[in-house]
Sequence to fold (109 residues):
Amino acid sequence: MNFYEHTLIARQDVSQSQIKQIEDKYIKIIENNEGNVVKFESWGLMNLSYLIKKNKKGNYLHFKIKGKGKTIKELEKNEKIDKNLLRFLTVKVKKLDLETDYFKKSDDQ
Fold:
């Protein structure tokens, strides 16, 4: 089994209930293809560096996955045809970092 970090960006006008549906849809695809979601993070609505399909912002969703290559292939095949998504990126890693929350809001500010 390999480890992957997978980030996708949903359109800015997608509601919270639709984001939950997107999350559930892709978790189900991963699990149906011999994969396992180790950790899921919703990073929220953030500015994009440049316009993507006329959007200035996007909802970021981040999955830490343990699975096979065919798991990622099936996941990306479904994401290519999803109209609610702007972009996605999969990175193969040697070890998953489950400790750090990079986009967690800190209370000390």
Observations:
- DSSP finds two helices and four strands in the chain.
- The mean pLDDT is 88.
- The helical segments are 16-32, 69-80.
- Residues 44 and 59 are 5 Å apart (CA to CA).
